[in-house]
Amino acid sequence: MRVTTVIGNRPQFVKAAAVSGRLREVADEMTIHTGQHYDDELSAVFFDELGIPPPERELGIGSGTNTDQTARMLAALAPELAAARPDVVLVYGDTNSTLAGAVASAQAAVPVAHVEAGMRSFDRAMPEELNRVLTDHASSLLLCSTPAAVANLERESVLGEVHLVGDVMADVALAFAPLAQERSRTLVEHGVEAGEYVLVTAHRAGNVDDPARLERLVALLEALPFPAVFPVHPRTRARLAAAPELAERLERASGLRLTRPLGYLDFLALLSGARTLLTDSGGAQKEAYLLGVPCLTLRDRTEWIETVEAGWNTLVDLDPATALAALERRPPSGERTDLYGGGRAGERVRDLLAACAPRR
Ligand code: UD1
Questions:
Q1: Which of 52, 55, 184, 347 could form an S-S bond across to 31 if both were Cys, CB 3.0 to 4.6 Å?
Q2: CA–CA separation, 121 vs 110, rounded Å?
Q3: DSSP character at residue 353
Q4: Closest ligand 1 atom to the C-alpha of 41?
Q5: Which of 6, 59, 63 has the most ligand 1 atoms within 8 A of CB, as the residue to mutate?
Q6: 299 touches 353 (CB < 8 A)
Q7: What is the rounded CA–CA span in Å between residue 118 and residue 152?
Q8: Contact at 8 Å (CB) between 179 and 101?
Q9: DSSP, res 56
Q10: What is the pTM of this model?
């Protein structure tokens, strides 16, 4: 069986780490890296640390508007798929690379398998929501992380086959957590002590592209009563560079340490030791739950609703008063339920892919 995998962004490299090695035991996989994330700190470091097979093809398509980026990817993917003639195209998550992979494949009449299918925020203003809905309706095999995602797809009457497999990102977090927890050097390098600091990430277009929302984010970070480490994503860095007065406020905020984006192991190490995570990322919300770190989500909704229901995640949007109150609350006591498939999602993805097409 021939599988062509299309990836391009930091979280997709993590997801591929759970699947590629296993998939290559049973299929000929070829990976195409769209180039959506091209900086080494968002791309190469993940391939190195997680042992992902290097991409066979690199399209070098990064930056630009969502439309422009997706269109350039589509144009570049068509001849790649025509040459590779895969039995199935595998895509992950909800980025422009996901949508381009799905549409190019559907147009080439090749079945699409979508990992992390069915996630919904019910906010069509998010580019990711559009990418998810369109990808799911173009897919033949919809591989879901959670029962909530399965229910979303049932409501939308998608045409493809739907399976609950668990979450592939959870596989990787569980596998690498012991290694990350040994990296105490990372905490020393960032000048923080275990259990005493907040880890911050913020990069969603909805939070950083609108100057008024960006100002609210800065005000919230200025109000934090604990030391904090904030690895700044390139999108956020660019928006701050365009608003120097906000950048200066962040530089001056007491106890706040701004850093370059981190590799996977350093991020997991800092997350393991954090008192609380403050984030608008989807993946980090799950990782915090798996590591037993309370999360405050800088949005008014989340696709990973089960972390909220379990009492480990609070939606605070960009409201300092809500965030400060939530920071004081401690998480529920007792064992955390296994919400994401117990570290075996990658195996299930491999088995379902192997069952869907003959080996050539
Ligand atoms: C993308 C995804 C988002 C995901 C995030 C993970 C879409 C619509 N969004 O957002 O869902 O959560 O990746 O990080 O696909 N840039 C660099 N270096 C890079 C890549 C980007 O400097 O390696 C800069 C460029 O100026 C670029 C901007 O960051 O224009 C935004 O990058 P882009 O890939 O468009 O979206 P992300 O914000 O990274």
A1: 55
A2: 28
A3: H
A4: 23
A5: 63
A6: no
A7: 6
A8: no
A9: S
A10: 0.97
